[in-house]
Amino acid sequence: MNAINTTDLNADECLAEMPGEECGVVAVIGHPEAAKLAYLGLYALQHRGQESAGIVSSDGENLICHKNDGLVADVFTPEAMATLKGSLAIGHVRYSTTGATRVTNAQPIWARYGGGQVAVAHNGNLTNSEALRYEQEQGGAIFQTTTDTEIIVHGLARRTGKDFHEALWETLKKLKGAFSLVILRPDEVIAVKDPRGFRPLCLGMLEGGGYVVSSESCALEIMDAAYMREFQPGEAMIFGKDGSVRSIRPFPPETESFCIFEYIYFSRPDSFARHARSVSMLRARLGAQLAKEHPVDADVVIAVPDSSVPAAIGYARESGIPYDIGLVRSHYIGRTFIEPEQSIRDFGARIKYNPVRAILQDKRVVVVDDSIVRGTTSRKIVNILRNAGAKEIHFRITAPPWKYPCYFGIDTPEESQLLGANKTIEEMREYVGSDSLGFISIKGLVQVMPKTINYCLACFNGVYPEGQEPQCEFSKNRYESHK
Predict the structure, then answer these.
(1) Domain of 191: which CATH number?
(2) In this structure, is residue 465 part of a structural domain?
(3) How far is the C-alpha of 236 from the C-alpha of 68, rounded, in Å?
(4) pLDDT, tens digit, for every residue of 401-421?
(5) Distance between CA atoms of residues 243 and 320, nearest Å
(6) Closest by Cα among 176, 196, 195 to 455
(7) Which pLDDT value is given to residue 277?
(8) 292 and 219 share one domain
(9) pTM strictly above 0.85
């Protein structure tokens, strides 16, 4: 086994302990204030990316772009929004990854080339990006960013003699990995989901007859759009400025590999899962299943807020143990802050989570969380709870042990840094310092989830979808090609 580095992470690393979703996308079609609706949609998708944000709109002839590093509310000032005219718009929020924080990587990527103007926003990660990038560079392409999304733009530029849609399908058929895309031209929006359907993408309808495409349905709510359905794997929809809509299947069919972690952690609880199921209700069922698999005598069930709250409530209902708020999370933490002297123990976790002593004092506590990655934050939470007077601490996790890295759009450490890849359950319990530790089983996880979906479970069982593994060590090292 590879050894886990037990040195405490600094405060920034503690905040980034949970796996990070790469980004979220939105498109608005057929509304006179499309950019303003896109802004609202991105605001609802802010949990999917906090590094940068961007919107590109069309006034019917030209694309207008505004993007920058920062949160949605900071990037889009009233002055910036006033420039974004037209009835078509796409938007993007991006998650920060190591070494790739630069404004040039903010999306959507906008370009003017021989075929006209185009803007692309991408959720996911391409596993053959390095090979495609090298091929395009050998052909004379000059890259302005380190994101794999730019490969799509260069692919289009190399096919300027063809019909745009034909050139787009040819370009996308060369891609491996995960891509949920929204693409804007002056007179149309195209939304595409990869043939494996790794990442989510849903469709909504505006009251006046326009359409909305979004990574999650929570963005539809804020735009007052009605949820219609999730895009099917390999589906593309073409929305014309004239109100026309076409759904086509440009890719050969493949087995669906939807990321199960979207429902465990990433998606907002108020979003819909497939077929209008509630994500919150799915997580409550995960908690109930966890209570069946790992019961314990205790006095109170608490959550590691915020995404674990529905699961903790489900655990409490199934077990009969009362649920209460034992940890309060601060929502006002930036990506960086001043690190104090080491004498202030567990600073990174303390600034994020505060214990409610009246709930915890002399209690046997069940703590429900989504996952354990490196284990460092879990360890700090145990220290916080013990210092607050908890008599016993029983950690329960609604994901199986995380043993393998993800290459399809989740920012995860290398295998050598994953606690579940290097320690037994008992060794993990000793490391985090809890009195007991229980993970939901893969069988129990799948049993709870909607049966109409085929899931990617590679981060838990190491079985990557056939033909989708990274095609070179450079990609496996997860260089800056991540968005």
Answers:
(1) 3.60.20.10
(2) no
(3) 28
(4) 999 998 888 877 788 889 999
(5) 53
(6) 196
(7) 85
(8) no
(9) yes
